[in-house]
Amino acid sequence: MYSLLLLTTTLSMYFYLRKNQLGYIFSTIAALYTHHFSIFVIFVQFLWSLREVKKETFFSFLKPYFIIGLAYLPWLYPLYYQTSLVSSGFWLGKPNLKTIGDLFSNFFLGASIHPLQLAVLLAFVFLFLLRSWGEWKKEKLILAWAFIPIVLTFFISQLKSSIFYDRYLLFCLPPQVLLLVSRRRAASLTFIFLAIFSLIIIDWHYFTHPIKRPFKELATYVKQNKKPDFGLINYNGKAHHLFESKYYGLSAPIYVPQGSLPFYAGTALMDKKDILNILPDKEKIMVISSEDPEKTYLCGYSLEQKVKFDSLYLLWFKKEKFGCPCG
Amino acid sequence: MVQKRKIWLPLWLILGLGLAFLLRLPSLFEPYSYGDECIYLTLGQAARQGLTLYGQIHDNKPPLLYLLAALSGNLFWFRTILLFWGLATIFLFYKLAQIFFPKKEKLIKISTLSFAFFSSIPLFEGGVANAEVFLILFTIAGILRIFCGKKQSKWVFFSAGIFFSLAMLFKVPAVFDFVAALVFITILFWDTKKKNYKLPRPPCFATRSGQVITNYFFLALGFILPILASLAYFWSQGALNQYLTAAFFQNLPYLSSWGGSPRLRFGFLVLFVGLALWKRKEIGNSLLFILIWFAFSLFGATLSGRPYPHYLVQSLPSLCFLLAFFFSKLKPKEHLFLSVSLAIFLLTLFYFRFWVYSPFSPYKNFLLFATKRYSQEKYFASFGQKVERDYQLAQFLTLHTQKNEKVFIWGDSPCIYALSRRLPVGRYTVAYHIADFDGFEETASALEKEKPGFIIDLQDETKPFPELREILAKNYSLFKTIDGAKILVLYYIYGGR
């Protein structure tokens, strides 16, 4: 979705600059239907056009925005619903200056750890320093595209629920890269190549060494050891593994004693039987979890055995004689 | 009237050499602390005492470095030779710059001064007597010989071959500089055979096939002769097999022992050089040669995949020429190749995680020491916590053993041998050589046979050596402990003294 957001917003800006109205309208509608955050790019475009608008051209200026607005009407209610859900509480923390630093670090260096990230950092720092910044006034639009969405999101996040997250702002990356690689000096090309070579190696490493939990092994273990009278659940910790369980053919609902899951836990993709409020009445329950086993607690059951699969656990719980004191 | 004599070196070069001298000067007063250097000095000491290199004492480099260490005798003179060697290298580099940048004074200055600076500061360990710092003099001399021969002469190529060979007798990866020269000569000959070829070429380059074959022959002859001479010498000493194994064959698995894929790197080398040759008509001759030289020398420097900064000294001459090209008018393809080359160099630094030494702290520490604000102990400690211990152990050995008496140190501190001027029992000077070349049995039987008066166990070695433990338990007792290192004495010596 975020890559598609990147593509559609970049296309929107491309057609905007080429003054191709049809292309602009279609790509902008596609961007809006991909992710709400594309509204920030439209906002930048709107502001930029507003600078040059005259009385006699006012309606032709508004025309594309009117058509886009019209095409977006069917999605206004989902937007309202989503916004009200987010307002009621969201999992993101309030951003601060460090969050902004992390955002650029994630954009340019990537989130995974690789020794060549230092080379990329050096390359971008030098590209930044070597750039001829003298004519920056000619680049106001690109600067606005690169930074206004970040600034707006940052301030909106200070007011209510935070919506500041790197992947939502991914569409700010193209103008930032354009800024870095344009207005070069003789030595800039060295650092562009350094960044390209390093990123190729980092990406190669990233795609050939995926960080993937060994759920397949866990599922095989469960299938081999689970008897019909054993219960099987997903523990609701920092993360649940309901979708992996389904993918590997395990029926392991999430145990949520408090009643319901927050909407951002993927409830839109769950049905009723995916959530359990009461533990199954079984002598033994197998629990899929990525939490610390010592901190995994099931009322009326005690931890009997733990099987570790890298950062995943399959925990065996046994019913205690006196059951759960709370009933 | 007295006529003013013309100084034959430009003032800026004299200043550059003076700067290099000053930058290298503190290295003369450094303590014995650099392991490799101490191994060379120990082997040099062995050569002075008449031991056969490789046969009776082992290291894995060709012999010239050890002979130079033997000539110097101690660290001060080793580093002094290195200092003047470095100045001579800078001078030859300047002569080569004059050829690559004819009538371009600015580029000559930039390349020469950057080379003088980078080859002298601690960043690339220019002040440490490593093989790379010595071999580049011969590499530059070989290239200089090829490019500045005044006329077509087989002796030009013969002497160039000798220089490349001498470089290789310092360290095997120098062979890649020789290959770079061969590739360039071949391509130049290939092109000059074509009609309408207008790029300038060095005056000594042949244009007729017969001359070219003669040139190749003499270049190869010059390259092979010194190597053959060394083979003949070690054959006469009965150490040919050990020489071949240690200095040449063992290098291949040893050089790649730190991982990485030499095949992949070779693939990139072929790709880069192939592209440069393919686009050579859009690149000037000087830049083309420097690109080829740079690619091969960097391949040589990264052959082992080890992150020691002095390995990069091999690429330093070509790198400094490349840097200077940035200050010239470049065609688009030249700019592209230049940028890619420098990006590859920077990438190499990060990819192999080359160690970075502070270029300033050795000077700061030396100044504090020279102005007596640092005591000798504090100055020595700035080179590592074990330096003081090594000096104390060496002093102990000097006092308690005879000059020609061998000792054995279990650990990786060859500086104790070099400082005390005592030789090891067995062929190995450090524990990691015993482990890397599986010399446990050989060393144990040498210990059984020679029964050295003293064995030092540095207590920081984790490699298991049960035979040594057995020998120690059977024949030795603890004599003294210095800074955690155990000095063990042979029973009957202990009783006798």
TrEMBL record, chain B:
UniProt keyword annotations, A-Z: Membrane, Transmembrane, Transmembrane helix
Membrane-spanning ranges: 7-25, 76-94, 106-124, 130-148, 155-170, 176-192, 213-235, 255-278, 287-305, 311-328, 335-356
Superkingdom of the organism of origin: Bacteria
Record carries keyword Transmembrane helix: yes
Keyword tRNA-binding part of the UniProt annotation: no
Protein name stated in the entry: Glycosyltransferase RgtA/B/C/D-like domain-containing protein
